[in-house]
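On clarity, I found the account of how folds are encoded harder to follow than it need be. For illustration, here is how one protein appears when written out as sequence plus structure tokens:

:::
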Amino acid sequence: MKDKRFCVATAFYGISFNLTGFGLNIYLTQFAYSSIELPAKVAIYYLLDKIGRRRTEVGALLMTAACLGMNINGMGYNSFMARLGVAVAPFILLLDEVWKELPQVVLFSVAVLGGIVARALPETRNRCLPETIEDIESSGIEKSLEKSVEIK
């Protein structure tokens, strides 16, 4: 489940680094990119409240994958996976030497994988999330997570 950060970071930075790969003027592409990203960030606040974090993330990753297909808070492990995704993204773009559409196919696949992994996350809508280690220990979240892992 934590590997979704790898998928999110790889898809986001892969698209960001490949601005010239869309076949438009780099300034026009940057303008289009920002005109999509700014309203999306505003919409996230609304969607998180109305449909929840998991559905919002799954939808965003799958929508990213669909767009790429047409065009052919954490530290530690989560942060490492996100940074690994950022580091791998430029190398994915080098795959165009093998096949011109291969970078888009790889980014599409990573975004779909991230959407599938995010689908397994628990829903947090209308729930107060723990903010400290003491909150986690007192709420029994650790025990319920251990039980759910044992069951699966």
The mean pLDDT is 76. The CA atoms of residues 50 and 125 lie 8 Å apart. Residues 4-121 form one domain. The two ends are 14 Å apart (CA to CA).
